[in-house]
Amino acid sequence: MRSPIAIAVFWIGIYLCLTLFPLFVLLLYPPAPNIERGFWIEFSVALGFIGLAMMALQFALTARINRIESSYGIDIILQFHRYISIVAFCFILIHPIILFIRQPETLALLNVLEAPWRARFAVTATSALIVLVVTSIWRTQLHIPYEPWRLLHGTMAVLALSFGIAHAVGVNYYLSLFWKTVLWAAIALTALWLLVYVRLIKPALMTKKPYLVEDVTPQRGNTWTLALRPHGHQGFTFDPGQFSWITLDISPFRMREHPFSMSSNGDNSERLEFTIKALGDFTEQIKDIQPGTKAYLDGPYGVFTSDRYEDAAGFVFIAGGIGITPFMSILKTHGERHDDERPYLLIYASSSWDDVTFREELEAMQQRMDLTVVHVLRHPPDGWEGETGYVDRDLLERYIPKRRGTRQYFICAAPRMMDAVERALHELDVPATNIHMEHFNLV
User: What is d(CA 119, CA 130) in angstroms, rounded to the nearest whole number?
Assistant: First the structure.
């Protein structure tokens, strides 16, 4: 069986090949130039085609393809999707800029009222891409709600890719041969098919496997545990630490879904629990959800799981606030599996003692398995003798084992805490391959 690193490298190679393959194909049977185009013109065209190929692959990155997701984790894939979008945007934008500099007369093509259709296609595609990038980067500042933004995002992506390829075909230079046009048409149709699958086919499949809310239980720290039971089907098991997208009380076609980690035993398909902190908007409504409410799940996803490291001598979990959720799933699952041969260390940062979610459950678990819990409070009560402040290098050095490479380290917290803990672990010579992180924000 290939290692996760080898599989990840394999998919990177596939991505690079798919990005560059259409460009290499265009070089087969190159058209005989009627004029001297020069290096910079050809370079700008190459950037345009690479940018188009990268845009088409963006549809695959967001399609939640299990084989790809299981190699990296969907949080890493979505981060890559965000960053590579900027790269593709720059490539596509540089393409006309070089043309305008090398051939100033092409500036007239910006006059869409008089320009040929191929130029109108280019302007439309570029405008859609600009709207897509601006509304994605500054969505919060522009106060665009998630659901309308998601619809806008998909629409602009389709327009940018479709009109971009229409522009390339309209230029009729490198795509003058029929089979090359067919190739790019196939690329566009594949991308659109992936969008149809995510937006229509997958929601249709989800409607056949609904869940019902069994109960909503309050927890410490303004947090609630939402329990779901499969309705008319067997549900699914999951690797402890994974997450799912939840759609509550509406049709899955509405695209109003939210990702949350499961906090229950991964081996129990009859009851799935999600522990959710009330932070605003959707999460504030969890406490008001009534038993019997219909729900739909898309999952499980994620590689933030102990099951990928069965041979580990032990685990170190570092949680901040509601970041405790995936660790509860791991601890519950391993407890039910009677995994009492390996040590577990949980370093849990909270605002106050009353805000410690799952406090009593963690105390009970310490009696059943080799679990050490270190609470770190920013606002400790009077007489508190435990750790205070923040999880920093000195605190970690006091608790993690001296033989750093014998454990697997999992971090789930707010971004600032995760960055600080990751740096501290590196400074303490923890191998980078032993550090695993789960990001809160997937949207």
Answer: 16
Which burial class, exposed, middle or buried, applies to 226 when counting CB atoms under 10 A from its CB (0-12, 13-18, 19+)? buried
Cβ(27)–Cβ(175) below 8 Å: no
Give the residue among 265, 228, 220, 271 at the shortest CA–CA distance from 246.
228
Rg of the chain over all Cα atoms, to the nearest angstrom: 26
CB 359 within 8 A of CB 220: yes
Q: What is the DSSP letter of 106?
A: G
Give the three-state DSSP class for 404. helix
Tell me the pLDDT band of 26, cut-offs 50, 70 and 90.
confident
Residue 440 confidence (pLDDT) = 57
Asked if 225 and 275 count as a contact pair (C-beta separation under 8 A), the reply is yes
Which range is most confident: 26-30, 37-41, 285-289?
A: 285-289
Going by their DSSP bridges, the two strands 344-350 and 371-377 should be labelled as parallel
pLDDT of the residue at 34: 56
**Coil vs helix vs strand at 335:** helix
What is this structure's pTM? 0.80
Facing residues of 380 across strands?
A: none
Amino acid at the residue 323: G
What's the half-sphere exposure (Cβ side, CA atoms, 13 Å) at 98? 18
Contact 195, 61 (CB under 8 A): no
1 band by pLDDT with thresholds 50, 70 and 90? very low
375-380's contacts with Cβ under 8 Å and 24+ in sequence apart are 375/348, 375/350, 376/347, 376/348, 376/349, 376/350, 377/349, 377/350, 377/351, 377/352, 377/353, 378/349, 378/350, 378/351, 378/352, 379/351, 379/352, 380/352, 380/353
Task: State pLDDT tens for residues 356-401.
Answer: 999 999 999 998 899 999 999 999 999 899 999 999 999 999 999 9
The strand pair at 243-248 and 294-301 is best described as antiparallel
